[in-house]
Amino acid sequence: MTPLTFVRALADIRLDGVFNPYADVCEVYDRADAAAYRRRNLRNFLAAVSALNTDTIWMGRDLGYRGGRRTGVALTDEAHLGQMDQVYPGASSQQATRGPVVAERTAKEIWAVLHALDNPPFLWNVFPFHPFEEGNQFTNRRFTSRELACVNDLNSDLIRWLGIRRIVAIGQDAAGYAAQFCDDVVTVRHPSYGGVNEFRAGIRALYPNYSGVAVSRQHALF
Asked: Can you give the pTM of this predicted structure?
């Protein structure tokens, strides 16, 4: 498998009620070639992580409408796209949407930690697309079992290709899923909905050299 073949396989998947950022274009916010930008963002990220020999994944649940739906990178909002290359050399990324960047609080917490790690993890989600409530694309919902079945093989291929030995599950949804792929699964609290302090404590337990980084309230939105 290569970054190119993996991203192409993702782009080929079509599901009702699901925005595929590697194939779909949002009529409200996206540039005309937004899907191509996001495919390139993910390809660059995969190549950079492979070069770093990263053996750990931080796994969330699915893409949110303020974050990965717009960027094509899990647990990453537009406010941090410009920092990709600093943490993952070679992972240059570009904004695929029109207008000002949109920030997400979860991404802000995640990226505050990444800057402090010597060997940063690969960022991924159980479900690598954005599922939304019927009638409103700018909402978040949990994926269904039928939707998840469409990406199980791709997730398995990805984990095997990267040589992943540990999965840090960001939240319980990811924890229950990750166990089938890896014996070493550690769960930390998701930082949203009042979980910031528990998330930071969980990360400090995993990475003793990480002292914790205060997150500004600017753009502190989920």
From this structure: 0.92
